[in-house]
Amino acid sequence: MPFRIFAVGHGGPRQYNYINPSVADEADIDKALAIKALAEGDYSSPLGAAQAVNDANSAGAEDIGKGAIMYGKFVFSELIQTGVQYLQMSGGAANGKIMLSARETNMLWPDTARFVEQSLDADDAGYQFMKKIKGALSDTNMYTNGALRKISDVLSFYGASIQGTPGATPWLSFQLHR
Prior knowledge:
This protein is of the alpha+beta class. It contains 5 helices and 5 strands. Helices cover about 45% and strands about 20% of the residues. The protein has a 5-stranded mixed sheet, with helices on one face. Helix 1 (about 30-40) packs antiparallel against helix 2, helix 1 crosses helix 3 (about 60-85) and helix 3 runs parallel beside helix 5 (about 145-160). It starts with a strand and ends with a strand. The relative contact order is 0.23.
C-alpha cells in the first residue's frame, strides 16, 4: 500500500522541500524480478543493488524474495546512517536536528502515530537515528524498503543542498503518512 512522504529542511542558502504523494512499498515489488535484477545488477555500489530490489514490479519467489527485501532494508539502513553522518560534517552540526513523524490512518480504530528526534551532536547520531526510526516505522507498518529508500534519498538530496554553505546548521523533518 503506497504512502506519502514530505520533508522540509533548512540550514542552506534556501529552504529545502520534498513531497512524494504516492511511494511504492514491498507489496508492489515483483520478488522474482528483483532476484533477477540483483543477479544481473551493479554491485559496484550498495545503492545499485538495493535499487534493483526496489525497481521490480509484480509477484513471485517468496523465500528468495524475502531475502532480497531483507537485503534491501540492510542497504537502505546503511545509507540512512551514512546520510546522517554526512550531515554531521556541516559546520553548525552541533546544533542540528533530524526528526521523523510517521502516521498510519486506521478506519476502525485511532490512528497510530510516532515521532522521533535525533540531535546531530552525538558521535553515533546515524546509528541512533536508525534505531529510533526502526521502532517508529515498525509501529506504523512502514518499516519497508520503500520508506527506507525515500528517507535515504531525501537525506542525500538535502545533504547536497546544504553542501558548501559555511557554518550550515542542518535541520530536517520527515513526515510519512499512510
